[in-house]
Structures are given as structure tokens and as C-alpha cells.
Amino acid sequence: MRGRTWLGAALVLGAQLRALWLAAAVEVHTAKEVVAVNGTNQRLKCTFSSSSPVSQQLSVSWNFQPEDLSSHEPVFYYLKEPYKPPSGRFKERVTWDGNIERNDVSIMIWNLQPSDNGTFTCQVTNWPDVYGTIGEVRLRVVQKVNFSEIHFLAVAIGSASVLMIIVVTAVIICRQRRRKARDKRIEVADTEL
Known about the structure:
Blueprint: H1 2-23, E1 27-30, E2 33-37, E3 42-44, E4 46-49, E5 59-66, E6 73-79, E7 82-83, E8 94-96, E9 107-109, E10 118-125, E11 135-142, H2 149-192
Parallel strand pairs: 2-11
Antiparallel strand pairs: 1-4, 3-9, 5-6, 5-10, 6-7, 8-9, 10-11
């Protein structure tokens, strides 16, 4: 009877440890969609959180899936140091822009082109956290930036600021002219006396 109790306890403990192991996974965080102008550079931000401290075995894989759903392409790899792709569309166009100590594994894509439209995936493994989510960033390369609400707000605030400066300047000039005219009247009145 005593052996069955130990066996039952061991099974329960094993199930709990397995649940904890699955819960101790790397979580990857990215922007869901990024819009960039053709010919510019864009940082693809990817951060992670892990239940384990950052290990020497931490690895990062960036991959690309074009919009036409052709085969995946490796973009960048990190293991103790960054490794640029030796070939492919991102050769000489991607650089490491992360900071492992800050849980940042971002990259920079240079000279964006319409053919870069697609989904970038960021996968992090941090031993013993080898399982976890994969971050996805959908990149859209456009010819020009659309006039958005943010732009409208910036123009409105800028215009209001310029208008306020003009009004304040006009008030100051008017006061100075009145003061000069008053001083002149006082001076004329003093000379007449």
C-alpha cells in the first residue's frame, strides 16, 4: 500500500512539473504590422520574456515569408553573436539592432523594396526555455506615406503654434508703439512747459 502512495505522489508531482515546464516558455513580442516607405530603412522590433535568465545558448532566428507565399527565407540568425545571411534578398541589407541584456532581438532592414512585402517571424530559444511563441511582423512597403490622422494632428498643432507666435509678436509690437507714442507726447508736453 505504501508503494502505491509513493507512486501516486510521484505521478502527481511529475504532472505538475510537466505543467510548469510547459508554462516556462519564451514569450516573443512584436508589432503586428509595420508600414514603411520604399527606399527607406526600417527597424523590425522583437522583444522577449523568459522565466529563465538569459543563457549563453540563447538563439534568435528571423525568417521571411513573401506575400506570394513562396518558400520561407532565412533573414538573420543570432547565437552568441549575430550572423548575417550569406545569400538571398537580405544579404548586405540586414543588420543586428538588438540588445540581449535588454531582451531585445530586433533587426534593421536597409533600402526597403516592394519585394520585401510579407511576414517576418522572430523566434527565440533560451535554454531551458526552448518552446514558446513565435513573433510575427507583417511589413508593407509603400511608395509614399498616406496622410493619416497623426499627420493632420501634427499640422493642426504646428499651425496653431505659428498663429500664437504671430499674435504674441503683434501684441508686443503694438505695446511698444503705444509706449513710444506716449513717451513722445510726454516729451513734447515737457518742452512746451
